[in-house]
Design a protein that fits this description.
- There is one protein chain.
- This protein is mainly β.
- It has a domain at 43-135: Immunoglobulin-like, CATH 2.60.40.
- It is 13% helix and 32% strand.
- The longest helix is centred in the first third of the chain and has 17 residues, at 15-31.
- It starts with 7 loop residues before the first helix and ends in a 32-residue tail after the last strand.
């Protein structure tokens, strides 16, 4: 902002009127603002998509239960006491505000495999991780296998029925 000095005698004002004019100009100039450059804070953003073993999206999963865990790394050491944790929104989108530096990012959802990866963030830059798929853990059949041919497969072999002692 430039300051222009004009002698009051040139304007032709004196005394109180001139003082009020100066005060008015100062107030008017203080109202003029310049928009500061906006910097986006450092952090990560993306969308978590729960999928089944065939890679198909599981639409009915509660995506607000997805946990994004960001652990700062200094050298080779993870600083677990400075972990930043956020939950995804209902559509799976997330934004985590972080400072610049290196992080281990873990994405959790109960019943799904944990996704873990490293991210290095520059100051005032948000990294878009895009779409991140997490796969549901599928349970097996649980049928026992036998070494000897001809041996019958016993369903639920190994199950124990424990009864309380009787007096």
């Amino acid at each position: 902002m430039k300051t222009i000095l004009i002698p009051m005698s040139v304007i032709g004002c004196t005394g109180t009127v001139c003082s009020l004019l100066v005060i008015g100009l100062l107030l008017l100039s203080s109202c003029a603002t310049t928009k500061p450059e906006e910097f986006e804070r450092a952090g990560i953003k993306g969308t978590v998509v729960p999928v089944d073993s065939q890679g198909e999206e599981i639409v009915m999963e509660d995506k607000e239960e997805i946990i994004i865990n960001c652990i700062p790394v200094q050298g080779e050491v993870q600083l677990g006491d400075r972990t930043v944790t956020e939950n995804a929104r209902g559509n799976g989108d997330f934004v985590v505000e972080l400072r610049g530096g290196e992080y281990v990012v873990e994405i959790f959802l109960e019943g799904f495999y944990v996704r873990t990866f490293n991210v290095v963030l520059d100051r005032n830059r948000r990294e878009n991780l895009g779409e991140i798929e997490i796969q549901r853990i599928e349970s097996g059949t649980g049928t026992p296998l036998k070494d000897v041919e001809g041996e019958d497969v016993i369903a639920n072999e190994g199950d124990v029925n424990i009864q309380p002692p009787t007096n």
